Amino acid sequence: MNFLVLVDSHSKWIEVFAMKSTTTMRTLEHLRRTFSAYGFPEELVSDNGPQFSSQEFADFMKAHGTQHITTPLYHPSSNGAAERLVRTTKNTLLKQVLEDKLSGQIRSLQERLDAYLMAYRNTPSTVTGKTPAELLLKRSPRTKLSLLKPSFLEDMRKNQDKQVRRENKCARKILGLVKSNPLFFQ
Questions:
Q1: What phi and psi, each to the nearest 5 degrees, are found at residue 5?
Q2: 47-59 confidence digits (pLDDT tens)
Q3: Domains of the chain, residue spans
Q4: pTM
Q5: Dist CA 123 CA 177 (whole Å)
Q6: GO molecular-function annotation terms (predicted)?
């Protein structure tokens, strides 16, 4: 099984696609889907695989105003972030397969991949202190962890209600206000 790994260099948000076939056509399908969700990147860095060095791929990049940069042959470390993520993805999926065998759980590759992406995208970066989801989406998606603790908005609403009740309890009613009468306060 091959994987197409896309990494946003700013937020470190990743998209991972399991691919039985790594043809240019299949690669472009995944890029179209990704670009339709997030927009066209200014540049795309890839290895020199045949799917990335075809004329069809070059035409696609040009049509979408994306500069295509390829890493030098036999030097994949020059695209280190993507190479590391491919390795991390494969290792994580392998661990999940082993854990599933031990626990007797049956999950598809896509279910495992979705679980990995949810965890990765919602884990704070040691560099930024924020999750890829927070940087890209400008919010934190709901996760299983957020179901365990009350949300910020819930807490804020409860605190506002308490404050209103406290203020109303101590407030005095002002009687005798008429529109035409002057109002003096100190």
A1: -110, 125
A2: 888 999 999 999 9
A3: 2-144
A4: 0.72
A5: 57
A6: methyltransferase activity; nucleic acid binding
